[in-house]
Amino acid sequence: MQFDPASVKFLRAIVNPPDLRDLFIVPSPPIGLVMAGRSNVGKSSLINRILGKGIARVSNTPGRTRDINLFEFTLRKEKGVAEDQARTLAKYLLIDLPGYGHAEVSKAEGNRWNNLLAQLFDVLPPTMHILNIQDARHPMQDGDRLFLEFFKHRPLVASLIFNKYDKLKTQSERARFNNFLPAILKETKIFRQAYLTSAETGLGMNELNVGLINFLLENTP
Ligand SMILES: Nc1nc2c(ncn2[C@@H]2O[C@H](COP(=O)(O)OP(=O)(O)OP(=O)(O)O)[C@@H](O)[C@H]2O)c(=O)[nH]1
Ligand SMILES: [Mg+2]
User: Which residues share a beta bridge with 100?
Assistant: First the structure.
C-alpha cells in the first residue's frame, strides 16, 4: 500500500477545544497521524512529503501553523499487488498541530495552545500515531521535554522523527547525533520508533512511509 496523493483533502481547522471532542465522539475512533514539534522543524514539509501533495503551508516564518489543521487521506494499492478492498476504502485522519516553543508567541497565545493540547491528548485514541518531529541539529530541547509531559503517562503510540538530517553536513556532526540517539530512546521509552529524515532531499522517507502505513493497516478493522 502507499499514500494516495489524489485522495488528500483539507477538512477544517480547529480553534476551540470543544470542537475536539466532536471529532472523537464517533462510532469508531479515527485512525491516523498527529504531527507535533517545535516551530519550524518541518512539520508541514513532512506532511507534503508523506502525502505526496503540497497541501500544508510551508514557511520560513516560525509559527506559521496556528490552529489544529485536519486533513483526510486514503491509501491505494501498489500496481500488481492484490489487496483487501476495505483497506483502500478506509479514510484516515492527519492532524497538524501548531508548533510549540515559539519564542514570539504571547503568553495568552501560549496558554491557549497548552489548553488545546491538553484537551487533545485527553481524547486522542491509540489509533492515532503521534509523530514528534524534532530538528536533528537540536534534538530534545526544553520545549520537546515539556511536550513529552503531555502524553508520556497516557496509553498512546508515539514515534520520533529527526528531520533536517541533510543539515548535518560533517561526519563529526553526524557522529555526535548518532551517539546521542541511544540515550534519547532510553530516556523516553514511550517512543516506539525513531526515524531520520529530510523533507528537503527525501532522505529516510521510504522507511518512514513504510512504518506509518504498517501502523495504519494494523489499526484498520
Ligand atoms: N534543509 C532542510 N530544510 C527543511 C527541511 N524540512 C523543512 N525545511 C525548511 O524549514 C522551514 C520550515 O518548514 P515548515 O515545514 O514550514 O515547518 P513547520 O514545522 O511546519 O513550521 P510551523 O508551522 O511554523 O510550526 C522551511 O523553510 C522549509 O523549507 C529539511 O528536512 N531540510
Ligand atoms: Mg507548519
Answer: 38
